Amino acid sequence: MIAHVRGRVAAVTLSSAVLEVGGVGLELMCTPGTLATLRTGAEAMLPTSMVVREDSLTLFGFADDDEKSVFELVQTASGVGPKLAQAMLAVLSPDGVRTAIATDDVKTLTKVPGIGQKGAQRIILELKDRIGAPHGRGGAVSASPPAPWRDQVTQGLLGLGYNARDADKAVDAVADEAGATPDVGSLLRAALRSLSKA
Questions:
Q1: Which of 46, 73, 119, 185 could cysteine-pair with 115, CB 3.0–4.6 Å?
Q2: Distance separating alpha carbons of residues 133 and 192, to the nearest angstrom
Q3: Topology annotation, domain 4-61
Q4: List of residues 6+ apart from 134 with CB closer than 8 A
């Protein structure tokens, strides 16, 4: 996968930017906030996430790694695809998304076009335990971020084709085996064993 792109900004449109990398123009779909930081002709480096579909390869560009990680995490909720995930980051900052989910703020999430009351409640239910606390100033939210191994094992299971709900159950099932210095490889194998028994 393409983790980031560095190159000269060849063009900026309302929804995307074209970065020239080694003579090739790569189109990156970006939020308005990210596009506002880019200047045609200037050098830029954007973290990216590639979304592969049967009929397309789409590259999404981000202002920073934090925005990228929230974009990828919210897509693990059922019903949230890349376009909706990008819309969430166009309306809310990464910390805004974390705060809304951690504090059950349905009203804030429904400000995002495409998210209704039920959709917001589902996103909160599925992501509350994994989204972590806001990274910004202090923060009144008491939700502690999940252990890094949990996210790595979950991402491994998602990459193998399991859905978010099954992946979460499998991670919970092996949590007791983590110990003080968790071995992600062993935990992933244990999670796969628990899924094969289910």
A1: 119
A2: 28
A3: OB fold (Dihydrolipoamide Acetyltransferase, E2P) (2.40.50)
A4: 95, 98, 99, 102, 141
